[in-house]
Specification:
CATH class of chain A: Mainly Alpha
Number of helices of chain B: 18
Radius of gyration of chain B: 25 Å
CATH topology of chain A: MetI-like fold
Order of helices and strands of chain A: HHHHHHHHHHHHH
Number of helices of chain A: 13
Number of strands of chain B: 16
CATH architecture of the largest domain in chain B: 3-Layer(aba) Sandwich
CATH architecture of chain A: Orthogonal Bundle
CATH class of the largest domain in chain B: Alpha Beta
Helix content of chain A: over 70%
Largest sheet of chain B: 7 strands, mixed
Structural class of chain B: alpha/beta
Oligomer: heterodimer
Distance between the termini of chain A: 43 Å
Number of domains of chain B: 2
Largest interface: A-B, 32 and 38 residues
Distance between the termini of chain B: 76 Å
Shape of chain A: globular
Helix content of chain B: 40-55%
Largest sheet of chain A: none
């Protein structure tokens, strides 16, 4: 009886497995194959070229720019997203009324279509007509060029991504905070610990699994950043001067605008290796078991 | 109930017996034609196909369309897979790769003699000529012109569109508006490096400043001369020195046109393909003028571009014969005339371009008059070549790079793109 049930379970699992193989694993494997060929989708000849595509992208300044930019998005975005998300979650726990309302409010960007949001943000950043510079002006600050200045553009886009994911972080942190047994807080209260001590020695360590999840999940989002950049730099994609270019956008331009699938696939393979490495490192360093 | 079912079956059977032979007797050949979706083009093509089928019993044409934004990808994935059409509409800049890969066939000399093509079509049709043969033909072509807001011109006391670039600059200075704090609230010129301006610089300003953009055989970028640098400086000065334009003044891919339509940019350089959008949305008096020249009597120049119809290698035997007939039909002067009337694109034939009635048309005239001196850049990889010039402009404006150095870098980047293609054509 048991064997029979297991067989059924495997039969049902086989469906998704086949789907996963066909839709995920095989295309990923074919990317590896394509990366070793000169592969213009229009050209009938697709000769094997060894590592030439890898050599090409590694000597392409724009690829390096895309790679370092991607890391800059990550380094700027993750801490901002985490700190704001945790801060808002802690504040929300303190209020009894309107908690659901605020949580919904923060969550709305996450369910807003990215393209529409990106276009609205692009408009907000417009130097002359955008409301952001009006705010700057009202605060007595000089107007900024935002998306038009290479030094600012990347952070302007990162800010939009933080805004987009903050509600998701808040919900995750609220769940994580609820999972901490209240006895620890009660014991700390009896011992006379202050707010910071409670946060430092109880909340933060016990929130570690949630933090690890948030960091890993957030990192993957920033490493795969594409839609927001494409739509906020529509005419000069990844510009100005490649200052907002990401690896995925680089792949898109090479592969689907210039039809050069070889370099595009090579960049994909490099990105895959990077995401794998970064995720493994994060899992190893951040996931400590905390027991009290 | 059963009776009804039987009756329905009977009707179906009758239809099979009577209908099918009739439907099958006539069309022997079915052609497929592809173009991107643009409502007026699709509607007109449906009408043209009906006319063509009436004139050519035995040929049936099916039109299939795809959204503009994904058309390039669709054609690029379908044609090599052998799933494409018999006659395909391509941007001329894509043609080299399709010719090179053997997916389009040369137009037969018997039906389309080279000498006749060159006699009957405007000069830029040469963009579809490789190895002495023509590989595709257009119905219509596009050139650039200056669109200007006549209401704003009147308000600023300017009576006519500028003829020379100096005059253009002086006008732009008078038309630019600022608020009390010095912020620009209306542009004299709606600048757009990634719009049509990179074409303006490449084929108009470079030439007028004495720098041929490419070598005669199209294999090398040659604009990095002192003249070319001066032309680029003149253009970037509009932003940095004269402050009559701001890049990204309006957001979005067509921000410059939107700014013009909103009355926030007094002049823009745009293509004849923009006429429809501007005519449909502009709520003010506007005009069109030929692009300015360096001096009032100086050399005119323009950038031309075209979508061409080619025969794919799928069209063979009777299919090919039919496709040739269809191609002749959709590139004929008659089609060109209705195309202009219904779609608003300027005709590719010299006969119509020389028509005095068309040349004096206030809107189409300036575009048509530019045809004899319009150059269609021989693009290998339009997206990449466009990026090269957009970056050169930004290097000068944002990084204060010397225009000559910016152009040296641009031409060496472009040399790489061109070299990759020409390496196979020693």
């Amino acid at each position: 009886m048991g064997a029979r049930r297991a067989l059924w379970a495997y039969a049902f699992l086989a469906g998704p497995l086949v789907f996963f193989l066909a839709i995920r694993i095989l295309p990923a494997a074919s990317a590896l194959f394509i990366s070793l060929h000169r592969w213009n989708i229009i050209s009938p000849e697709k000769p094997f070229v060894g590592l030439a595509n890898f050599r090409e992208i590694l000597s392409d300044r724009l690829f390096w720019k895309a790679a370092t930019n991607t890391l800059r998005y990550l380094v700027a975005g993750i801490p901002a997203q985490l700190m704001l998300g945790l801060g808002i979650a802690l504040l929300l726990r303190r209020i009894a009324r309107f908690r659901g309302f605020f949580r919904t409010l923060y969550f709305i960007p996450f369910v807003t279509p990215i393209v529409a949001a990106a276009w609205v943000w692009q408009w907000m950043y417009t130097p002359t007509f955008g409301p952001l510079n009006r705010l700057f002006e009202a605060a007595g600050l000089p107007p900024q060029a935002f998306l038009r200045r290479p030094e600012q553009a990347l952070y302007a886009i990162a800010a939009m991504v933080v805004w987009e994911y903050i509600g998701f972080q808040v919900v995750i942190f609220l769940a994580g905070l609820d999972a901490i047994p209240p006895v620890f807080y009660e014991a700390a209260g009896v011992d006379g610990a202050n707010g910071w001590e409670v946060f430092r020695h109880i909340t933060l360590p016990l929130l570690n699994p949630t933090l690890v999840f948030s960091v890993v999940y957030g990192s993957i989002i920033y490493l795969q950043l594409f839609t927001q950049v494409l739509n906020m730099t529509f005419g000069d994609q990844g510009g100005p001067l490649g200052s907002t270019m990401t690896v995925v956008l680089y792949v898109y331009i090479q592969g689907f605008q210039r039809f050069r699938m070889g370099p595009a696939a090579a960049a994909t393979v490099v990105l895959f290796a990077a995401i794998l490495a970064i995720t493994l490192v994060q899992m190893r360093f951040f996931s400590r078991q905390v027991e009290y | 109930m059963r009776q009804m079912a039987r009756a329905a079956l009977l009707v179906c059977a009758a239809a099979l017996v009577i209908g099918l032979p009739i439907a099958h007797a006539q069309p022997r050949v079915t052609l497929t034609y592809w173009q991107y979706f643009f409502e007026s083009k699709v509607k007109l093509m449906d009408i043209l196909i009906k006319q063509f089928e009436a004139q050519n019993p035995g040929i049936h044409v099916v039109q299939e369309t795809f959204p503009y934004d994904s058309y390039n990808q669709k054609v690029a994935s379908a044609v090599p897979a052998g799933q494409g059409p018999d006659v395909v509409n391509l941007f001329y800049g894509w043609l080299p790769l399709y010719v090179d890969s053997g997916y389009v066939q040369p137009l037969p000399e018997s039906a389309f003699p080279v000498s006749q093509i060159e006699r009957e079509f405007v000069p830029m049709v040469k963009a579809a000529k490789f190895e002495g043969k023509y590989w595709a033909l257009p119905t219509a072509v596009r050139t650039l012109a200056l669109f200007y807001n006549k209401d704003l011109f009147r308000k600023a006391g300017i009576s006519q569109a500028p003829i020379a670039w100096d005059e253009f600059l002086a006008d732009a200075q008078r038309l630019t508006e600022r608020d009390g704090k010095g912020n620009m609230t209306a542009e004299g010129f709606g600048i757009a490096p990634d719009g049509q301006d990179h074409q303006l610089i490449r084929e108009v300003l470079f030439r007028q400043w004495g720098a041929a953009p490419y070598s005669g055989d199209g294999r090398r970028a040659t604009y990095n001369t002192a003249g070319g640098a001066e032309a680029l400086r003149w253009y970037t000065d509009l932003v940095t020195k004269h402050k009559v334009a701001t890049i990204g003044f309006f957001p979005g891919g067509n921000g410059y046109r939107d700014a013009f339509l909103a009355g926030k940019a007094a002049m823009i350089v745009d293509g004849s393909f923009a006429i429809g959008a501007i005519r449909g949305s502009a709520k003010f008096d506007w005009g069109v003028a030929q692009l300015p020249r360096r001096t009032a009597g100086g050399t005119p120049a323009n950038f031309g571009s075209l979508w061409v119809h080619g025969l794919t290698n799928k069209a063979k035997g009777p299919q090919r014969e039919a496709a040739i007939k269809f191609l002749k039909f959709i590139t004929s002067p008659d089609t060109q005339r209705v195309w202009l009337q219904q779609v608003g694109e300027i005709p590719a034939g010299k006969a119509l371009a020389d028509d005095p009635k068309l040349a004096t048309d206030p809107v189409y005239g300036p575009f048509i008059k530019s045809l004899p001196y319009a150059h269609a850049t021989f693009f290998i990889d339009e997206a990449a070549q466009r990026q090269v010039l957009v970056d050169a402009i930004n290097e000068v404006i944002l990084n204060h790079k010397d225009p000559k150095i910016a152009l040296d870098e641009a031409s060496s980047r472009e040399a790489k793109i061109l070299g990759e293609f020409w390496a196979k054509h020693k």
